[in-house]
Every structure is written in C-alpha cells, then in structure tokens.
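Before relying on records like the one below, remember that each one covers exactly one chain. Contacts with other chains, cofactors or solvent are not represented anywhere in the record.
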Amino acid sequence: MVSKRKLSKSDAHVDSVIAELPQTKKSRTSCHEKTSAQDGAVVNDSVFVQLLRTAGITLNAGERQNDIAVDQATFRKRLCQILRKHPFYPHVVQEFVSGLESHIKDRDQFRNCLLPCAPVRGEGTRNLVHSYSESLIKLLLGIDTLQPAVITLLLEKLPEFFFDTVGTFGTNFPRLIVNQFKWLDRILDSKDLVMKLMQMVSISPAPIQHDIITSLPEILEDSQQSEVAREVSQLLKRDPRLTVPILDALSSLELDAGLLAEVRQSAMSIVPAVKLEDLPVVIKFILHDIEAVAAVEVISTLRENLDLSSCVLPPQTLSSQNKLKSQPQTSSSTSQVSSSQNCVKLLFDVVKLAVRFQKGISEAWIKAIENAGSASDHKVLDLIVLLLIHTTHPKSRKQIERVLRNKIPLGCVPEQLVQSAFRNHSLVIKDFFLSILSLAQTFLHSVDPCVVSFGSCMYKQAFAAFDSYCQQEVVSALVTHVCGGSEAEVDISLDVLMDLVSLHTCPLRRYTTFLKNILDYTEKLSPQQIRKLFYILGELAFSQRQEDSYLQDDMHMVIRKWLSSTVPKYKQMGIIGAITMAGSMAAKRSKDDGRLLERTPQNEEHGRQLSVLLDLVSYCCEQSSEALALYYDELANLIEKQKGNLDLQILDRLGSSVLEDFSNDFVVDLTPAVDGVHLFPVKSLYNLDEDESQGAIVINLLPLLSQKWVGKSVDEMAPGNQGKKVASPECLSPSFRLLRLYTAEQHNGSMEEIDALLGCPLHLTELEVGGKLDSLAKQEREFLCSLLFHALNWFREVVNAFCQQQDLEMKGKVLARLQNITELQKVLGRCLAASPGYVPPPAIFDCEALEAAASISAVGPAKKKKTGGKTPKSEESKDSSADHSQGEENPEGNQPGAEPTQLEKDPAEKKSGIPSVPLQSYRAFFRELDLEVFNILHCGLLTKSILDSEMHTEAREIVQLGPAELAFLLDDLCQKLEHMLTPAAAKRAPFLKGKGGRNIGFSHLGRRSSQEVAQCAVELLKPLCDHMENMHNYFQALATENHGVVDGPRVNIQEHQLMSACYQQLLQAFHLLFAWSGFSQRENSDLLRSALKILADRLKPGETEFLLLEDLISESFHYLLNFQHSVPSFQGALTLTQLLMVIAEKPVASWKKEKIASLAKRFLCQSWVQPGGMREKGSQFGDALHALLCVYMEHTDNILKAVEEISSVGVPELMNSAKDGYSATYPTLTRQTFPVFFQVMMAQLENSVRSIPAGTPSDSREVQLEKLLHWNMAVRDFHILVNLVKVFDSRPVLSVCLKHGRLFVEAFLKLAMPLLDHSFKQHREDVQSLLKTLQLSTRQLHHMCGHSKIRQDLGLTNHVPLLKKSLEQFVYRVKAMLAFNHCHEAFWVGILKNRDLQGEEILSQESEENDPGQEVSQLPSEDPAEEEGDASGSEGGSDTKDDDEESSE
C-alpha cells in the first residue's frame, strides 16, 4: 500500500516540521472566508484549484500545508473521473497542468505541493481520514493522464534551484523534487524518465548529482537495473568525485559478475584516498556479494589498501580527548573526536554485517591474514578484524587462536600494534571485550613465552583503555590465574598486576578487595611470587596519594601470623613479605613531575612502623640461622632493588648495625695461633695481603663451623642457650652481601670502606687431602665438605662485591679469588666423592633450596662411593656436555703462595683413580653469581703489586684470566643464558616434579627480564669474540706444531681438554644468545642489529655502521664460519653448525643453506680423535652425530644423492675395514655409529619421497619422466639400505627398517602408483625397472618379518602386522595399475616361502614351491607382485604359513 512506502531522510525531516492540525475544518462552501494572505487558503477560480477542491484537497498559501479531506486513493479516483468526464476533456488536462505550473511559481506554494498533505477530519466525521498522506505532486504523479506532464514540469523546474543553498528558503527543493519520483506505483515511460534524470546528472551541481544518483534504486524498475548500473559505472570513470554516491547506489542494484568485479576494482583503488566519513560506504560495496572463489583475493587487496592510521586523530586532538573529563573542551574539538570515532565504528559495523551474513567472508579474511608474509605486512586492522570474527563467529574461535599463536612468535603482532589498537580504537574494541578476555586467558596457558607475553599485554591494555566494569573483569581474571593457575600463569599474572600497580595505581585501588583474596592462597606461591604479591599490596597500601589503612592492617596481621609460626615455610613467607612491605614503606615518594615530596608526619609514622616491623622480624629470626640468613638476603635484595630510591634516614636505620654485627660475628685479628679445640687444625689460607702484617684480619670460618658441629648436641640439651644469638657460618655470605650493598649505596658504588675483606685470608685447614679422605671419619669428611662449601660461597660473594671496581690492584685480587674458587672446587669434588649421602649446608634460603636439599638427602645415600653425594637433576644433567670438574683438569689454577704442590699432584692422582664429583648438580648450594661478574671477561693482562715484608721492595707479578677461571665463568654464563633465553617449553619439568627446581640458583637473575639479560649478553660479545679467537689461534697453533696430529707427543692432555671445554662453552653462549626468540620481536630489532654489528666488525672494522641487516647477517655468518677449521670436538662442531643455522634463519638464503650443508658434511668426514688417542664415542657423541647428520640431510640440495653416497661409498668401506675400523670417506661412520646413520638415512629418504608430487593425468611426458627418475633413485636407495640389514642385523637396525620400510611403501602407494597408472604406456621400460627393483626390497622386508617372529622379539613383531598390510595393499595396487592399462593378464600371484635375513628357508614351516609369475610379460620369474603374495597372509602370525594366493577374480 502507498501508506507503507519507504521514507527518505528528507521525508523524515519534513515530518518534523509539520504544523499542528487544526481542531476543526469548515465545509467547502465556506472556503472563501477571509484569512491572512500568508497562511490562508488559496482563493481563485482556476480550473486547477476548483478541480482539486472538488476531489478533496484544499490548497494553502504561506507556511500551512495543503489539506486533504479524503483518502489518497479516493482523491486519485475522483480527480481522474472529474478530468475524464469534463466536457472539455482532454483540453482540460492541459489547462489543469497550466494551473499547476502557475500555482508553483510561488516558492511557498511549490514547497507545500512537495510536502505531504495534512489530513483533516471529513465533514460530519470525528476521525482523521488517514494518518499519513503523500504530497500533492506525488498524488498527481499517480494519475496516468497527468504523469507525463507533471514529470516534465518537475524536471523543467529543477534547474531553477541549482545554485540555491539549503538554508536560503529553509527547504532543499532539489531533493524534494527527486523524492517525488521514488516508489511510484507505476511509471508510464520509465526509460524516458531515467534518461532525463541521467541527462540532469550531467549538468547538475555535485549535491544534486548526489541526490539523483542515490535515489536511482528507488526509482528504477527491476528490468532497468542492469542497464542503468552499467551507465552509472561509466559515470564513475568520468567523475571520481561521485564515487561514494555511485557505490551507494550500485550496492542496491543487481549487477552482473563482470561489472561487479570491474566496479569493485575501481572502488578498491580509491580506498587509500577516500574521506573517513565516506569509507564505510566504499567498504560496504567492496564486501557486497563476494563470490567464494574470489573472496580471499578481494579481502587481501582490501587489507593492503585499508590503513587505519589515516583514521587516527592528530596528537593535539588525542591529547584533548584524553583530557575531556578534567578540562573543558571546545565544541569543535569534541565533535572532531566523536566524529572520527563514530566513523571508524561505523566502518567496523559494516565489516561485522558482512562477516555475519555473508558466507565465506570470515574464512577469507582469516586466510588473507594467514597469507601475510613479513611482520611489516600486519596492521592494526588485522587484530581488530580477528577480534571481530572471534566475537561474531563462535565456530572460528579455535582457528583464530591458532592464527595468533602462529603469528605472535614470528613478531607479526608486536606489543606496539596491540597498544595502537587499544589506544586509538578503544570505542570499537570495547565491543569485543569478552573475546579479548577469552583470548588473554587462553594465551596465559600457553607454553610459548611470546604467546604468554601477548596475553599479558592484552590484559594490561584492556585495563588501561576500558571502563570500570571491564577493569574489574580484568582484575578478577588475573586473580583467578594467581589463585588457581600453573606456576607460569601465577608469575605472568603477578607481573601484569605489578605493571598495573606502577602505571595505574589509583584505578587499581578500587579492586583491592579482589587482590586481598590472594592472601588466602599463598601456600602454593613460591618466594619470588610472595615478593611480587606483597609489592603489589604494599604499593596500594602505602601510596602517596591515598593510603588504605584496612589493607595495611590485613598485611600486618598476615605477616605477624607467619612470623610467629614454627613451620619454616611460613616463617620464610613472613620474612619475605615483611621486607617487601618494608620496601614500600621506605621508598621515596615523588610527585607526578618527579620532585620528591617533603617529609611529613605521615612519613615519620611510616618510619616508626618500619622500625617496629624490622625489630619484629629480627627477633623472630634469632633462633634460626637459616631464617636470619634469609632476613639478611631479603634486606640486601631490598637495597639492590630500590637502589637510589630508599629514604636515607630509613637506610641509615637499616644499616646502622650491619658493619658492627659482621665484624663481631665473623672477623677476627690474624694471629699465629688460634685458641680452642676444633675438628681440624686451623690454618690461615688464601691471604692476598701478606705484605700487611700489621692489623691484618681473617674470616673466622673453621672455628665457627667447628663450634656449630661440636655444640649441636649440647645446644639441644641446654634450654638456657635457646635465647642466645650465636653466629652461624651460614650467615657469613648473606651478611656480607648486605654489608657490601649497604656500603655501595652509601658511597656511590665505592667499596674502599671494606676493601680489606677482598684480600683477607680465611681460617681453614690443610687442604692436601690426597689419599687421606678414606682414613677420616664420616663426620670429619662431611665437616670438610661443609667447610669447603662455606669457603666457596664466601669467595663467590667477594667476587660479586668487587667485580665492578676499576682499581687495577682490586681487579688482580678478584682474578686471584677466581683462581681460589677453581682450586677449591677441585678439592670439593674429591671430598664429595668420598662422602656419599652428604647434604651440603644451604646457601639459598628459600623454599626452592630446601626442596633441593631434601631431594639430595633422599638420593644421596643410594649412590655408590665413587659418585659421592651427586644427585643429578633432569634439567641440570642436560647442561653443557663439555662441562668438566675444574678440579680435574686445571693445570693453571694455583694461587701463588698457597699450596704450590696441590695441583702438581693432579696427574698422578688422576692416573691412580682418585674419584671426583662434578658440581653441576650442587648448584642450589652455591651462592649465585651476579651478571656484573661477567665484566671480568673484559680483563686482559693485569699487574698486581706485591711488597716483600722483609726487603720492602716492590715486585710485579702478571695475573691473567686463565683457562680454568674462564671455563668457570663461561659455564655459569651458559646456565644463566639457557635459563632466561631458552623457552620454557624446551625445559618443561616432568609431571609431578617439584615446581621450583628449574629456578634453583637463579633467584637474583629471575628479577631481571629476558631483554635485560640479552642486553647484557650483547655487551659481552666483544670479549667473548676475543676469547673465541684466542681459542681458535691456540688450536690452530697446536695443529701446526703437531703437524695436524691431535694426539701428538707435545699435546698437554689436560690443557687440551680444558681449552676444548672453553671453546664449546663459548660457542654455546653464542648459540643461546642468537637463538633467543625475543629477537623476532620488533622492539628487539635494534638489539639484534647491535649484536650482528659486533660480529661483522671483526671482519670489517669500521665499515659496518650503515650496512643493511641482511649484509650484517652475511658478514656475521662468514665470521663464524671461519672457526670451522679449529673446532676441537664433535660437540663443538655441532654447536657451531647450529649457531650458523640460527644466524642464517634471519632470513635464509640459498647460499647459506649450501654452506651449512657443506660444513656439516665436512664435520662428518672429519676424524674426531681425543688427545689421548681414543676416538670420540658414547651416547653423547651418538646424539650429536644424529643431530649433525639430520642437519646435513635437511640442508643438502639432493637428499637422495646424499643417501646414495653414504650407503654406496661409506658403508662398503666400513664393511671392508677391521672390526674396530671406520669408513675412510666418513670417519664418523663406525660399526658403533652405523645404527645412527641408518636411522637418519631411512627417515630422510622416507620424508624426501613424500615431497615428490603425485602423478596426475595432466602431467606432460617430460614431467612424468622427471618424477619417474626421482622415484627410480629413491627406490634404488631404499633397496641398498634394506639389503644392508643382511650385514648389520642388530636389533635397532631391524626396528628402524621395519618402521620406515612400511612408511616408504605407504608413500609409494599414495604418490608413485598414480604416476605409474598414467605413465605405464609411455615409459613401459622405466616402470618395469622401477617395480623390479622394489620387488627385491619388499621381498627382503618379508624376510625381516619372518626373522622377527623366529626371534620372538616383541619390539620387532609389533611392526610386522602393519608392514604386511602395506605389502598386501601393494600387491592389489599393482594389479589394479596393470588392469587400468589393459595388461591384467601379465599378473598373477605365486606362493612365497618364509625365509630369514640371509634368504635361507625357515625349516619350521612346510616347504612349498614358488609359483613363478610375472607382473609384466618382460619380467621373467621375478615379479613385484609375486613377493607381495606373502604379505596378504595371516597378520596373526601363523607359524606354518605366511602366504596368500590371489583369487581368480
């Protein structure tokens, strides 16, 4: 019906200005009543006015609309009848139109005719005639006799308003005129109307053109749409300014596929330049009616052209937007912000509608994002669209998660992109909050650290960008992770909360109630997590802006409860929480502008509370040496973390008694004799200040330890001693760490106040243990071990304290202390070997260390005496394979003046079989080295001043970083880099294993980010390169001196082993650094460039400043490649190859791939002999050989050729050699390593054939021949490998052959047989040769099946059923191929006997004659189908028969 027609925007505007209807209406007889000229009824006697009045419409002048007293249909019917029955018809029609033309000359009257008529009550009725009526013009257009003339009149009238602005008369006349043509029930000559309208477009101004074009879909009939659409699209080429209205119109028209694609391409080209407010219209058309075939291409092009950065507001507008709430804004800036955000939101609403209602759009968009290559190709648009699809399409959520998981580690979705999306488009992204929360929760469960970091970034950005409801949900999700997640989830969630409390303290304070709930779940938290939790709560409780007294009370209550507990774990938690909270109380508070706040009574109150808290902690720790040591460590950590940010008065209060307590407890004057009775004679050792005889001091270690050991039982029985604080050697290192950090904080890093502790000796005992250990009692041996552990930890803390001092003499003493460490480690290794079941004293006083102690205590007694108390951990036993006990192989670790005979006796002791225990598994019982210690690697030759006490003359001695000290530092550096830079997935602990095991010994390192550790490692690259070049020169010179003989008479075996270990550790450090996944992230690209520049500078000094990244990679690759000639061990060769692979992957070039293949082959063809003359062997060597052989196979350009070369050249040489011989071409190929070579060759051969494309009927003759040649070479290699089992018939070789033999046959069935189907006729001879060769191999596989059953080896027979099934399938597949080529008569199946590996018949089976058969007529008596007849036998393994006969079908 007419009343239900669609309203345009202008119509809606018109409706809003319609005047109120009059309450009454006079009859037509009183129409000549006098009214005002402006708003009264039109009074004249023209035919036009009279006929309208008769039909039911009264014309009004002025602002009043025309009145209609009858229904619209009634009006049309009356007027049509009046005109037709008029005596002057048809002349009256012209007179009527002339009257209309005269009437609309007045603009007000014309406007009234264009606006809807006002319904009035009819005479004698109480209700309105209709709720809505059309305009007079539109009613007249509905009458056939009047329509042509009215259309002409309107189009002639339209040019009068070309240059009128809308505001001139308050009405947009052109738009009203065009609207009259919309939704007409019938158009007599629609073609003529459209032609005239298009002509009008060509001469009209832009606004009128816009109105006409956008109205076309409502004017056209269905049959005209295609033709007019083509004409409009031509207009698009002529006038680009009309793009938006044309696309808006075309999106509502029916277009053929060709035209749609053409217009879509034109629209795509203007996307980068279109105005923001017009962009939704353009995108709507582009996404309109996309065919599934072209969807990916269209979306990909749209992604490239659509850049949301053009939608981002300028900085000044953004700043004003951020201050809208705090500062009044002008209406223009506010509207600009709102308009931009609304346009972007409208844009994504268009995308959302397309994704929801058009099938295939979501899949195409995901595919387009997947196809994006480099990280620079990804945009904010991609992330928002993925979130949109995740919200709109539940079925696509798993796919989106997979896409993001794949993209994030490659650096395609960096944190900067996430920040930009949330900061610039928060209005849009807020609609996808639930998806953001879901993805963040999912990603926090990932094992990939990059994915976990992305999830944490989403949490942080969502909290910063959204409202309080979303913030509450974010905090609630993070608390859930902390209370119920895995260890990694807890860590990352607490890290997110720490960032939020630092950046958004005030908003986060609203959700303190949520965060306090974590205190109920602290039992499962590690010490480091307790620190993070109390840091978060402390910052919220003691913020300078507003304090939370309730939270403070809760924290104090929990801490007092923990401190008063007798359970060590809770006491530790209380100490950690108290010191962490003390840090929040003692931190300097600053204003937003960086200026420090003045001290206030509130600060004084904090100081008083802090003193009370520290006194409480100190009192609760007095009875436990381990608790006291933890207290010292936590105070030291607090000073180190808050460096420069602690209130000086509070710092003085913290450290007022540190120096006094340390001096009283651990330092005594150096005297010739020591009073007291001790387990061992006391001797002062390792004195570096022998020239200072006056006022010398000594660390009173042995007497303190002896007092503790002897007094254990006495203290336990004497209750009067329980309240007395006794110095414990366990507190020595923690107390010194606190002292040195306090001193450095007070004196800006200078350690001159306590430099005497660097060179002072220790009270130890004679350490020439030799063969005396067996004669000592168990208690004495364990006492000696504890003494050595305490001494080593003291030296480690001394090195930590003084490693950054610039004084040359101090540097020399630090190097001497490193020598002392390597010497003591050697002695400790021997003592541990003689003390099975011994548990060392703790050095790291938290839960992880206690768990490690318990595990060693449990495992230790079960060990034999030869291995002592060693308790290897799964994650620790996999550390550097070249790690050796420095005590075993240290020829230069002697400290001058201490025990010159100790190291001289090492070779004899080693030859006599004195055991020693490696110390890697005791990492939890050594004090952690700081990262700053590795600055020692920068040291070259140093001089140390020595004063003779008698002659008072100055002597000079050269102190150098020796191989033992270098190996010690590099071993610790590699462990730290592996811990921080290797993904946790590669080091995941087994199920139900202690959660803290991996973090033992890395508590200080764990407070740094992986970026900080990588930055430190990059800064060490120059000295590491220096040391590696020194190693290279050493082994090159050694090879030259011994004429290339590794085990020459001039080779010092121990020195060679130690230097080889250093070389391996250097290569491992390089590999761990450059394999760090963080380099793929955009924010670390500069760090990667700096690292590569250091390597490239070694080849081209000063020429690398402006090199491109690819050139830096190339130069670094060549620099590292130069070390191939000096690598002393096979493990080092593998590490160097892996390092080059890591460098080459950024990105990979073909020449790099060839270089890596050539290098791997060179190492495989090199004879690896140890200095003692023995060839490298063992499981570790086998694993390295397997890895290097895989590298060679994966990087060589022709795997089939490589396999053939090894199997046809290397293996025959091995077979012809002696029992303990090896291949001349491949010296790494021995009888012991043959299973490794065989496994890799079989696996790589099978993988290689799977990459050969399957044959298709469309393949050309040349393509078929090329594929046949590939398969011919592969089958020949397979035949050679399978026949090697006759010679090398060990169980591992048989297992590999059965497994990969089946996989090869399955690949042949799937990929090769379709090729044979279509190439048999053209290449009959080649196919025959191929099948004949494969027949011999499959027959040998059958023999292996029989052999496995005879041997009754379950591990082998498990492979038999699947293999026989594949062989049976092959039989029928060959028959089908012959039938396909009409040669089925050339195929029949005979009976094949079961035989062993050598081809001898298995006698337990009844002998049966083979039935000779041929697969093709050219194959005499041996056909590829014949031997497969056995495969179809019983898979259950009948002992009498393993055959099958082909049925006659």
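The chain has 59 helices and nine strands.
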